[in-house]
Fold this protein.
Amino acid sequence: MERKRTVRTALALLGLLVLAVIGVSLLTSLALDSGWLGGERVAVIRIEGVIMDSRETIEELRRFRDNPSIKAVVLRIDSPGGGVVPSQEIHTEVLKARKDGRLKVVASMGNLAASGGYYIAAATDKIVANPGTLTGSIGVIMELANVQGLLEKVGVQSVVIKSGRYKDLASPFRAMSKEDRGLLQNVLDDVHDQFIQAVAAGRALKVEEVRPLADGRIFTGRQARTAKLVDELGDLQDAIKLAARLVGIEGEPRVVEPRKRFSLRDLLENSFLGRLAPVMPSGINLKYLLAI
């Protein structure tokens, strides 16, 4: 009987300890979000892997924008780019965060910050890259699979019923006509021009200065600095210190970084689906993506 009472007491104490830890964690998170703890901080948001969705990054930007204790945000970008729309959505959210001048945003480039990754960086106040960072790749790509020959070999015939002359544009089941290619090229050229204009605006350059650099080529961080696509050379800590200086934080800045929640979907998209996307017949899909 005494032993059972001891076990129950131990379990009860363990339960109280777990509740206390959860409570402290929630209170700390609430305090950081609302600025209760005071002080001035620099937040770090990581954008890693193929950019398939903008939701999480936008939520983090809004959270830190509305927190009075967060004076600057560093976007740590290690990405080959991704979808055109999520890249543009994050770019737009960065501009909104900077709009009233209270919050400064600095981009810190890791191993790779190309195409859509650079598109996002172009919206920030300053860009810091390592000398060996691969960046640039200012361009748009559309990769389409065509399985017509395979179907013919196995004796399968594709039957398409459509209304609208171009409704089966870029179909994987028939050869692309010259007219089809011309229409798709016009779409790509327009989205490419949007990229060029975004870089020109973000880097305070003329469109004519950006266009020769926007042929899809990549640059090292040092080359990008020479080309005025990057402001400074340095690592993440250098970017954090620069962000602190921009908002007048003296001494070593306190850094806040949101905890990443494990997501099986994100793992599959970044590690598997993102690599398979170019070879999967999934219709028309525009990407600001470095082909790797």
